[in-house]
Fold:
Amino acid sequence: MKNIKKIENIFKNYKLLVFFIFSSLLNATLLRFFTVFNYLAIKPLIADMGIILLFAAISFVIKEKNKNKYFICITTIFVLMFIINSMYYTFYKSFASVSLLATSVFVVDVGDAIVENVIQIKDLFFLWQIIGLVILMRYEKKNNVVDKTFKVNKKLAKKFALSFVCCFLLVIALSKPNDYSKFTKEWNRKGMVIDFGIYTFQINDIIQSLKPQFNNLFGHDVAYKKTVEFYNKYGYENTEESSNQFSGIFEGKNLIVIHAESMQTNVIGLEFNGVEVAPNLNKLASEGIYFSNFYSQVGVGTSSDAEFTFSTSLMPSSNGTVFVNYADREYITIQKLLKEKGYYVFSMHGNNGEFWNREEMHKSMGYDMFFDKDYYVIDETIGLGLSDKSFFRQSVDIIKNIKNSYDGPIYANLITLTNHTPFSDNALFDAFDTTLKVNINGQIVERDYINNTVLGNYYRSVHYADSAIGEFIQDLDKEGLLENTVIVIYGDHDARIDSEYYNFLYNYNPYTDTLLNSNDEGYTLFNEYIYELDRKVPFIIWTKDNNYSINVDEPMGMIDAMPTLGNMFNFYSSYQMGHDIFSINDNMVVLSDGSFITDKIYYNSSKEEQFPISKVAINDDYIKPRSEKADEMIEISNYIITYNLIKEMNEGRG
Ligand code: GP9
Ligand code: MN
Structure:
């Protein structure tokens, strides 16, 4: 009875504080409900409560005249954190880091993509907390309600601080030993929120984001030592003179790389009503060397991370993005290694050069020239800017002029733009029908299927982008630019389309106009792990004069592209973390959050769960060493990027 009295007294005399605590806890739980779904887990709930009680403790030592400002300021920060993370999760399936603030300037340029594809009602739902707080404050002021929340009360401050410590100790008691490693693995943000809640994640993220600024003073030596040890331990795998049938086959040839925006492997071979989505990529894949189990390894740097991992065979930064935050570091790149062999090296992109700070980073990567949109006539725009067909048309002339004026081989990297989320500007897209026509009792019935959905628009966009690539190859051929030339195409990352659309794509029954369920014949399982495995992107190596027709299904990541091309063109970086795919078996593809894929399993590091790919039983003896190496590769890549260690190690090597 006494306790009930006590609680009644708290609700009666500390209305604002009670609202602050419960609204902060409810919104944090709601965020986990909208994202990682573990809203009922007790550990993150206690962790969230602990941090909220800490802010409550601080409120009791704030002067009365500043209390309003304090609660409004803290609640506004919380609500912004919820909204930003909820939006961010929709697009990246992870949580936002403050280290990305410098990158956020680019959001403006992809604004419509964000609005159309990312902002959802659920993101704005969190606003109720700040609205409720203001209404309560106004109500209390208008009715002269005495709310003891506004009193300075050191005794209560101590009690709340003590309750924070109790929550903290409880979280420790509920944690496993390797849970703590998440505090230093900035890349495993999802795992942090699942285990410790959004407040602890964001506070830790701020500390981790500031770390490089301090570490340059304190953490450098450890980083240097660990990096040297890493390459001593694994370096032999990369230095082995592993010659094979592909060694040196392209030495001295021109190299034209197409960075295909948001191109995913599930478009290869896909048809609607007997019409191929990507006939040109299908042809190049069937005639060339096609890596059908290839994964992008981007972090939040998306396109720019794809360029970085392709060109350096290092993992992307977990703290900000290389292109924006670390463009001034020294890297060993394909561009530099080919320049040493006498190549003229240039990049081409129809967007403005500031996007992803390419103007600076392309210099740092070793390009002789970067042709951004200022070098093109913007005569046709789709989506983010210059259409791919116009971009490629104009690029052929630039390439031809360079080829005619430079007597050595060239390396051109063309970055496409049109096939970019939200894939909605289909005004210029070739008509491509994604409806389904079925014969029901002698009647042809047309079903909408994925027409006018984001997936349907994606495949229409891909059909356009593929057609642009086809025209580009033809135009190169007309100008004689395919002679003695290797074409490489890679998808830079997946299109980030929700799995519900793929489930519809694979499990729609046009005869009943319903979705198959797991008991129905013909049902295709499409869960979160198959979704991750479906995020593959195509990697194709093609030449006009050789019909290789090779399909490589060994799991391969973007960081393996440089070693694989290096073996063919005869260049090599002693810092490459990937492997020549023709010199390795049982390859492991490390993803930017520490998860990994082999030919046996997909291992999700956030949830510490495995998804079987083969029938081979897998135990911890298989997972542990690979998970440790995955973390080590990410950690060492981050050391190299943060501390500019390649410069130092090269100087050390004399
Ligand atoms: C922007 C283009 C798209 O110029 O490369 O970048 P993304 O949004 O895919 O990172
Ligand atoms: Mn991209």
The radius of gyration is 27 Å.
